[in-house]
Specification:
This protein has a domain of 233 residues: Vaccinia Virus protein VP39 (Rossmann fold), CATH 3.40.50.150. Helix content is 35%, strand content 21%. The chain is built from 12 helices and 14 strands. Helix 1 packs parallel to helix 5 and helix 3 runs parallel beside helix 11.
Length: 368
C-alpha cells in the first residue's frame, strides 16, 4: 500500500468516527419522529434475533465498532458473562458507551477500547482465544477499503475467538448494490431516505477480477443518519474466501428481506402470516403490512416495535427498500469439538458488573 493510500484510508476512517462521535443522542420522542424510525426498529430487531441465535448465557462477547453502546441491552437479555467494546470513535466510547453502561446497572463486567479494530493488533491488548462471540454490526464494510485492513480485521476476529466461537454481524449486500446500480441510467440510485452514488471509475458497472474485491467505494446517504459517507462493498465470495484463510467457516449469509421473512414465518399468531413466499411477480409484504386480507405480523415484530400495536406500525416502502441493501452473516471458528468444549468449560468466573471510569478506557493509536 502506498503512503498516500494509507493516509487516505486513515482519513476516511477518522471522518466516519468523527461523524458518529459528533451525533447528538436523541430522546425517545425525537427517535419516533425520525423518517427512518421503523427502519431503525427493524435493524435493531434483526440484530437482536441474530444475537439470540448465536450468543449463549455466560458467553464472552467482543463487540467490534460498538459505537455508543447501543447493543448493550441486547447482551443483557442474552445474559452474557463479559462484554468488551471496541470503536474508533473516542467520544462515542468514552462518553456515550461508558455512560450507558454505568447508568444501566448491567450485571456483567465490561471493558472499553477506543481504537480501530481494523488496523490495531488486538493481541497486544486482549487475551487470544478468549471470546465466544465477536460481533460487528453495520461496520465490517469499513475494513474493505484495502486488503491490508480487511486482513487485519479478520485476523483480529480469528485470534480473539476460541475454537467453535462465532463471528456474527450485519453488512452491505454487494449483490443488491450492483443490481440496483445496473438497473439505473446513471451512477446514483435510491429513494426518499437513502441514496447510493458510485463515481465514474465504475461507469462500466463491472466489478471483475482485474479490479479486485477491495476498495470498491461508494458514497452513502441515509436520511437522519449519515450524509455522503464513504463505504466499501464486501463481495460475498471474496469475504467468505478471505475468512476461510483465517479459520472462519461460513454458517449463514442472508439478505435482510430473506432473514426477516424466514424469522417472521415461524410461530405466526393472531391469524397473521409471513411465509416469505408470493406469487410470481408479486413483491413480498413488509412486516406489519396488510397483505392478502391478512396482516404480516408476529410477536417478534411486535416486540421490535416496543410493544406497539402492529396494526398501526409498519415500515414505509422506502424504508423496506433500504433494508434490502443489507445482509446478516455468521462464521464459525474452526476447531475440534473437544477443544471447543474445553474452552467453554474452563472459562473463568466473570465476576460482577461495576462502574467504568473514563480513564479506564484503553485508547489506542488511531482513535479519532
Amino acid at each position: 500500500m502506498t503512503d498516500k493510500r494509507k493516509r487516505d484510508d486513515t482519513l476516511a476512517a477518522h471522518n466516519v468516527a468523527l461523524h458518529y462521535s459528533g451525533r447528538e443522542n436523541q430522546s425517545v420522542g425525537q427517535r419516533q419522529q425520525s423518517p427512518i424510525y421503523h427502519l431503525r426498529c427493524l435493524n435493531n430487531w434483526v440484530k437482536s434475533v441474530l444475537i439470540n441465535a448465536y450468543v449463549r448465557e455466560k458467553d464472552r462477547v467482543l463487540d467490534f465498532a460498538c459505537g455508543k453502546g447501543g447493543d448493550l441491552t441486547k447482551y443483557r437479555k442474552a445474559r452474557v458473562g463479559t462484554y468488551t467494546g471496541v470503536d474508533i470513535a473516542l467520544e462515542s466510547v468514552r462518553r456515550d458507551a461508558v455512560g450507558r453502561y454505568n447508568g444501566g446497572n448491567y450485571p456483567f463486567p465490561a471493558k472499553f477500547i477506543a481504537g480501530d479494530a481494523f488496523t490495531a493488533d488486538l493481541t497486544q491488548h486482549l487475551p487470544v482465544k478468549s471470546y465466544d462471540v465477536v460481533s460487528s454490526q453495520f461496520a465490517i464494510h469499513y475494513s474493505w477499503s484495502t486488503e491490508t485492513r480487511a486482513r487485519r480485521a479478520l485476523r483480529n476476529v480469528s485470534q480473539m475467538l476460541r475454537p467453535g466461537g462465532h463471528f456474527i454481524g450485519t453488512t452491505v449486500d454487494s449483490n443488491v448494490l450492483v443490481r440496483k446500480l445496473r438497473a439505473t441510467d446513471g451512477m446514483t440510485f435510491g429513494n426518499s431516505i437513502v441514496e447510493v452514488t458510485f463515481d465514474d471509475r465504475f461507469k462500466r458497472k463491472t466489478f471483475d477480477a482485474e479490479r479486485g474485491p477491495f476498495g470498491l467505494q461508494y458514497a452513502f446517504t441515509l436520511r437522519d443518519a449519515v450524509t455522503d459517507c464513504h463505504e466499501w462493498m464486501v463481495p460475498r465470495g471474496a469475504f467468505v474466501e478471505l475468512a476461510n484463510e483465517y479459520g472462519l467457516e461460513l454458517v449463514e449469509w442472508r439478505n435482510f428481506h430473506d432473514f426477516v421473512h424466514d424469522k417472521l414465518g415461524k410461530g405466526v399468531d393472531d391469524g397473521a402470516f409471513v411465509d416469505g413466499t408470493q406469487a410470481e411477480g408479486e413483491r413480498a409484504p413488509r412486516p406489519g403490512e396488510v397483505h392478502g386480507g391478512k396482516r404480516a405480523a408476529h410477536a417478534l415484530w411486535r416486540s421490535a416495535m416496543g410493544g406497539l400495536s402492529v396494526r398501526d406500525e409498519t415500515l414505509t416502502e422506502d424504508e423496506w427498500d433500504a433494508a434490502h441493501l443489507y445482509a446478516v452473516f455468521a462464521f464459525k471458528k474452526a476447531g475440534a469439538a473437544t477443544a471447543a468444549a474445553a474452552a467453554v468449560l474452563t472459562r473463568p468466573d466473570p465476576g460482577k458488573g461495576e462502574a467504568v471510569r473514563a480513564e479506564d478506557v484503553l485508547v489506542l493509536e488511531g482513535a479519532a
